[in-house]
Amino acid sequence: MKRIGLFGGTFNPIHRGHLQVIQEVMEAFNLDQIKLIPAALPPHKESGGVADAQDRLQMIRLAVANYPALTQTATVSDVELKRPGPSYTIDTVRYFMQVLSENSALFFILGLDAFHEIDTWKSYLDLFELVPFIVMARPGVYRHDGDLKWEILEKYLKSKISDAYRFSVSRSCYVHAEKQPIFVFDVTPLEISSTQIRESVKNRRSITPLVPEKVEDFIKTKGLYL
User: Fold this and answer.
1) What is the pLDDT confidence band of residue 44, given thresholds at 50, 70 and 90?
2) Structural domain 2-221, CATH architecture
3) Quick one: pLDDT at residue 43?
4) Beta bridge mates, 94
5) CA–centroid distance for 161 within its chain
6) Could you tell me where the beta strands, DSSP code E, fall in 12-80?
7) Would you say 202 and 225 are in contact if contact means Cβ atoms under 8 Å apart?
8) Residue 14: which residues within 8 A CB-CB, separation 6 or more?
9) Are 37 and 7 in contact, with CB atoms under 8 Å apart?
């Protein structure tokens, strides 16, 4: 069984924090492959300040190609760029379920902040019928000590999705008799955000420590985020 992670987002732009958590999730969940899926028209973000989808796609390709730990296992998908209209996760998950072999096990990867908004997504309840989740605690979003952040997730899960979800210690995930499991995962704190990078570019500050060199060169050459 081939284990494949789906990791979508705006990637505006992709940065070293993204690459670090991708590597950690792959290792922790024994994934054979991860697909990075930039959104063409993110339905939950203002269009202003979002770089052209093709530019964001190219930056992801440059980042992965120059990150040795991911060159053999991470692939970039333009499926949402080819589809007209807003980029809905439910459509993307259904697409990969159709095109991948039956010998594939899919996992949908997202951050804790995004998970807490999932009840605003199109057909969100259907997602819990289709694919297991890997929910990451991303740095800079929740700074609660200990396990409080996961207690908040559990409260949200039971109030917005289903009160029948229970945490299984043996499986280290939330389980449900009729829905897919939800795994929780703490990632290494890296104080990097795409917003920080865009602001630095706009204010003519160096972004060298924040993004791969090839991505920085691309941003400068294309004049992005100025």
Assistant:
1) low
2) 3-Layer(aba) Sandwich (3.40)
3) 67
4) none
5) 20
6) 33-38, 74-76
7) yes
8) 36, 56, 59, 60, 63, 194, 211, 215
9) yes
